[in-house]
UniProtKB/TrEMBL annotation, chain A:
Keyword Transferase: no
Signal peptide: none
Domain of life, per lineage: Bacteria
Protein name per its UniProtKB record: Uncharacterized protein
Automatic annotation (TrEMBL), chain B:
InterPro entries: DUF2249, TusA-like_sf
Ranges where the DUF2249 domain occurs: 7-74, 101-167
Pfam families (UniProt xref): DUF2249 (PF10006)
Descriptive protein name: DUF2249 domain-containing protein
Gene3D superfamilies named in the record: TusA-like domain (3.30.110.40)
Amino acid sequence: MFGASLSRWTMSYFTAALCALLCAEALMAAGVGFPSQPLVAPLTLVLVHLVAIGWLSLLMSGALIQFVPVLVAKPLAHPELPVVALALLLTGLGSLLLGFLGMAGFSVGSMPWLPLGAIGLAGGFALNLWNLGRTLWSARPVGLPARFVAAGLLSLVGVVMLGMIFSLTLGGWTTNAAFLRLTSEGIPFHAALGLGGWLTFTAMGVSYRLLAMFMLAPEAEHRSSRIAFLTGTMAILVILIGGPVCLLIFGQGVIPPLLAALAGALVSLALYGQDIMRLYRTRKRPKIELNARVFAWALGSLGLAVLLLVAVAALGPTDRQIGGVVFLFAFGWLTALGLAKLYKIVAFLTWLECYGMLLGKRPTPRVQDLVDEPRAMPWFWLYFTGVGAASLAMFLGAPLVFRGAAFAMLIATARISFELVLTRNLAAVPRAMLPGGHRAWPRLHLPIL
Amino acid sequence: MTQASRELDVRPILRSGGEPFSAIMQAVNGLGAGQALRLLATFEPVPLYTVLGKKGFDHAAREIGDGDWEVLFTPQAQAASAQPAPNGVAASGWPEPVRQLDNRDLDPPEPMVRTLAAVEELQPGEVLCALLCREPVFLLPELGKRGFEWLGAFEADRTTYKLLIRKGAQPEAAQ
């Protein structure tokens, strides 16, 4: 009942995340990693972790720091902790990437980069987990969207623990037999928990609330949403607990727990898709804004990625197919979702930051006045065209076409990022409507309060 | 029934630049039935009166020198619920609203803008009633910052959020 205010560090997370995405796209355009190099090459690992941690996880963490208090109407337990976490995450990521570069044969010095990276990342994620977990705990009983987030955070615990084990093992700090087995075979668990549990399941929970909020749709909890939550959580637990048990105690491979989790995830995603379509149908807002439109495309990519995943699982996967599905999942679904939501969230947070105190006291611009949707839309089209072409190139094994498509994605992302900068600078607001009457270049990409 | 009051001194937290809200809420949640909280702070914590008022606490404040304040939060005799609903307002002595706003069908954040514009016109002690389609999480802190008191809850149908806002007698005190 206390309400939510602006999170001081969210914009810093977003800025760091966008920089990581631009770097990753530039590397892809330059031919670093799969498909120019093997799927398990160290340079592919550089790329994958730049995207998964640098872009997606920082984006999600920044968004959660702002929106978990909105979901549960309680203030963040420790408002200043996110900056410490961000510093640890960035140094951890830097060390991890240096470690992978070392594995690829680059001269990076003799520091134990991989274990150091794992320690930094584990520390950063742990601080955010503690902060968000305490905030959720203080608001019990929480609604369904917040329970999705809690399950996503549980998944993140698994991702971080497996990542720690891999790094300590690869860095030569441990020769424990169980850790060795997990490192050699457990990578699919790490990826599924990260992309599926942590990023997708959390995004699903947040989108239930945000989409309803932005489109003025009723927020009633449906049975389908509860089943989507239960089956998704089961899928997470099957991998988190069943995966290592299957591997280490029963000596089975990774396939049985992965297939069991996939079955749960399919039910969860199908019901989620149905819920979101209901939200679109029952919305009161007649005009669909850019963020909701792009979200619908992203959801389409998710559906396509899931269908391809099932087909690939049935036919027996090859590296190319795995790469293609994971790429579509990371860029067609999660990245597109992230860019679309950033477009809305940055405008809203900027509006609230600059005009919150003035609302009702003098005329203020609307949130929509801070953005120029017709100008931004073609760049989202270009982005999706790039993702489609790049996915196809991956499936067909055409690295040069892939690099061209990645370059198109880079251009589109850079332009969308520039639109966000313009929004933060209040570039579209007439001078008379500026908060102090003049165009102060506000604390744009650093702490916002 | 009456127990000795619990004391919480948040002055060290405030002096070190920290935010004592969570410590205060922890202390409040840890109070026994009928137990009062004696709070020591480096300023008069006016916004807290609204928050704890809604949790069913009356307050009595006095300055204790060097700019420090002591506030005694005592549970109201009738405070049966920590989550008061608008229909409990009559018992807490709020007057009938002078104005009604139906913001349920407006695009966000228009409900927030309209509500804040309307409350600026309230006279001290007057109450405004706003109907919304969801809990206005970003509006509530803004009302607190401007020194307004509010009571809000969903109606029984869970689709309409009814928010009552009262202009305090000395709104500037909240600054």
